[in-house]
Design brief:
Length: 200
């Protein structure tokens, strides 16, 4: 990495390298040495921009969570268009794509990382799941206000079912990610009761 690279460029270069290592080698393979080797830079470059490796990982998670926030905004914007099932079916592969799914166990098994995330943002201990939860809950609330979901539908219960089931669906991706038909079947099963019922 050139010594004159700007801080933002250096951070993104290291984040991208960490993402490749995480997807290839899993959470156990994500070390500072692996990141700097993947980034083709001296190990000191990482420590020049971050106080330690957990600080680097916390910023990595927050950066990737921000991308999920943008995808959540797109889901919310789809409220009132198409069908509820189709909108959720399209959103789940983005909210539970390879990178978010790989980051979740990284957070789960690193106590110090969870502590850093909690310090950095409210409820940040499980930042990726929190973003997915917020995105789906906000979207379902919008659809309820538009009358496409029953007025008395339990948004929290629907959200937990979609987030928990969606996470499991995309974690079990051997030999390949779930098909659109599989995702749609799952989504439809979760929301069918809320869609069938009508407000008074």
């Amino acid at each position: 990495m050139p010594t004159g690279m700007h801080l933002r460029d250096a951070r993104q270069h290291l984040f991208d390298a960490a993402e490749r290592v995480l997807l290839r080698d899993g959470p156990n393979g994500l070390t500072s040495r692996a990141v700097t080797e993947e980034a083709r830079c001296a190990k000191g470059v990482l420590h020049r921009h971050f106080t330690d490796f957990d600080a680097f990982l916390a910023d990595l998670v927050i950066d990737r969570a921000a991308l999920l926030e943008a995808q959540g905004n797109a889901l919310r914007a789809s409220a009132g268009t198409g069908t509820v099932a189709a909108n959720l079916t399209s959103a789940l592969p983005l909210l539970f794509g390879p990178v978010p799914v790989a980051i979740i166990p990284l957070i789960t098994f690193r106590d110090e990382l969870r502590a850093r995330l909690r310090q950095a943002r409210p409820g940040g201990g499980m930042a990726i799941l929190a973003e997915a939860t917020t995105a789906i809950s906000t979207y379902l609330t919008e659809e309820r206000e538009l009358g496409r979901i029953a007025a008395d539908a339990d948004i929290d219960a629907l959200t937990l079912s979609l987030v928990g089931g969606g996470h499991l669906l995309f974690t079990d991706r051997d030999p390949s990610p779930p098909t659109t038909a599989t995702i749609e079947k799952f989504v439809t099963a979760v929301i069918s009761t809320a869609l069938q019922r009508r407000p008074d």
